[in-house]
Amino acid sequence: MADYTIILEGSEKKIKLLQTLAEEIGIEYHVKKKGKKEKKRKLTRKQQEFVEGIKEALHEVELSEQGKIRLKTLQEVLDEL
What we know:
It is a single chain. Helix content is about 50%, strand content about 0%. It has 3 helices and no strands.
């Protein structure tokens, strides 16, 4: 038996109708309702700097994986301390 994911958007009445139809023709289904969208909150300056640092680090990792830059080894970093 194949599994399919179908995303339905519409009124509760129409969704109920589709559920009833699925039951009538013998299709098993699972309902997962979307949660309320979370409000975006503003980050503090410190949080923004942290996020930017993570983005930059991930970009450097991507460049390293592509062979475009060489990252220091842990030993090289420790030797600098």
